[in-house]
Design goal:
Layout (H helix, E strand, L loop, with lengths): L5 H15 L2 H4 L14 E3 L10 H10 L8 H15 L6 E4 L3 H11 L4 E6 L4 H8 L4 E5 L8 H6 L4 E7 L11 H10 L5 E5 L21 E6 L12 E5 L1 H11 L6 H12 L3 H22 L3 E2 L6 E5 L4 H10 L2 E3 L9 E5 L3 H16 L9
Parallel strand pairs: 1-11, 3-4, 3-5, 5-6, 6-7
Antiparallel strand pairs: 2-8, 7-8, 9-10, 10-12
Length: 373
């Protein structure tokens, strides 16, 4: 793992005067407009319809002038800023090209002598990574509140190598209480690693588990800029854990450093104090409005605190997904363990309004469902 020092961070600071005096930066930053409206409503992936914040877009544009240099100094600056904001040592933080790859690296690193234990339905990449290496996977159904069944997960395998908790959970958007996660840390099999994926934590009221890494060398926490920060296409993720855990990740995945514009966009996002509360509030409004509308029509939804939720459509869900897609509304895939549920990501006001219109036409009126049931 590359050594992170204050001297290296100061080196990054030294490039700022150069950057400030380049013609690129002196030129007025052009206004950033939203993409042209599409006929399709894309609420099938848990992306942000808003994209990066304006401050992040400007920083990313300015970063092009530095792309002739390697990005390490900028990376150290981002690591240091995130560590300071979260109250952990700098050496406990490492940045990657998104969080998906580092999650797969964690599966490879920590299931050498044990299985993977995870919830179902949940984010499927850990299971796919494990099965690709012929590692046993124990999938434990969510409990009646659609949270992780921590007692069930702890009992699944006394020799588990990695226990994966996505909190809030994808695809349900539901939160597992902090007390349950602390119980997992206290009672999990000796030598196993607990990985808490907090990709959606900033949409919720749940406390982060990051402070726990200081006392628990067997805890790894992942964060991403793909969701509330709107940088899915820029690829920026963070792993937080004891330095020995971070070193083990790199053995299996190499050292992938994001590009300077991406890193600068991440720094600007972290420094934008208005960004998170605004987006959290807007997401909650759109999500809760839609869930209220669905419940008024007799449909059950998960108690989401994320930018996605699930709906029990009370019929084979694949047919609903196809029928909506034929009308230009793309929603999420179906999980085998929940065959009558569909996942919907939160889009813009116009996108959620169009979703309600088409959902009413297709599901309430059974219009077109005979095509793909």
């Amino acid at each position: 793992m590359v050594d992170v020092t204050r001297r290296s961070i100061m080196g990054f600071a030294a490039v700022l005067p150069f950057l400030a005096h380049t013609p690129w930066v002196r030129a007025q930053t052009p206004a950033v407009t939203a993409p042209a409206p599409s006929d399709e409503v894309l609420i099938n992936f848990n992306e942000s319809p808003w994209g990066p914040a304006q401050s992040a877009r400007q920083a990313m544009q300015q970063g092009i002038a530095l792309c002739g240099r390697y990005p390490y100094k900028t990376q150290y600056a981002l690591n240091a800023l995130f560590a300071r904001q979260q109250g952990v040592p700098e050496e406990y933080v490492q940045t990657y090209c998104g969080s998906k790859a580092v999650l797969q690296h964690a599966v490879h690193a920590f299931t050498q002598n044990g299985s993977l234990v995870m919830a179902v339905p949940s984010y499927e990449d850990p299971a796919e990574a494990a099965r690709g290496r012929k590692v046993s996977v124990h999938e434990v159904p969510l409990n009646t509140k659609h949270a992780h069944d921590i007692p069930g997960m702890l009992a699944a395998d006394p020799h588990a190598g990695l226990i994966y908790v996505c909190n809030p959970n994808n695809p349900t958007g539901t939160v597992t209480p902090r007390a349950d996660i602390e119980r997992a840390l206290a009672e999990k099999p000796k030598g196993s690693i607990l990985l808490v994926d907090e990709a959606y934590i900033d949409f919720s009221d749940a406390p982060t588990c990051i402070p726990l890494v200081k006392e628990h060398p067997d805890l790894l926490v992942l964060r991403t800029f793909s969701k509330i920060y709107g940088m899915a296409g820029a690829r920026l993720g963070i792993a937080v854990g004891h330095p020995t855990l971070l070193e083990q990740l790199e053995v299996f995945g190499g050292y992938n450093v994001p590009a300077i514009p991406t890193l600068l966009g991440g720094i600007a996002s972290l420094e934008d104090t208005e960004l998170l509360p605004q987006r959290k509030q807007n997401n909650a409004r759109l999500r809760d409005e839609t869930i209220t509308w669905l419940k008024a029509r007799g449909f059950r939804c998960t108690a989401s605190q994320a930018n996605c939720f699930m709906i029990d459509v009370k019929r084979p869900a694949e047919g609903v997904v196809h029928a909506l897609a034929e009308r230009g509304v793309l929603i999420g895939r179906v999980w085998q363990s929940w065959p009558t549920w569909v996942r919907v990501s939160v889009g813009t006001d116009a996108e959620m309004r169009r979703f309600r219109e088409v959902f009413a036409e297709v599901v309430e009126n059974n219009n077109g469902l005979h095509l793909r049931t």
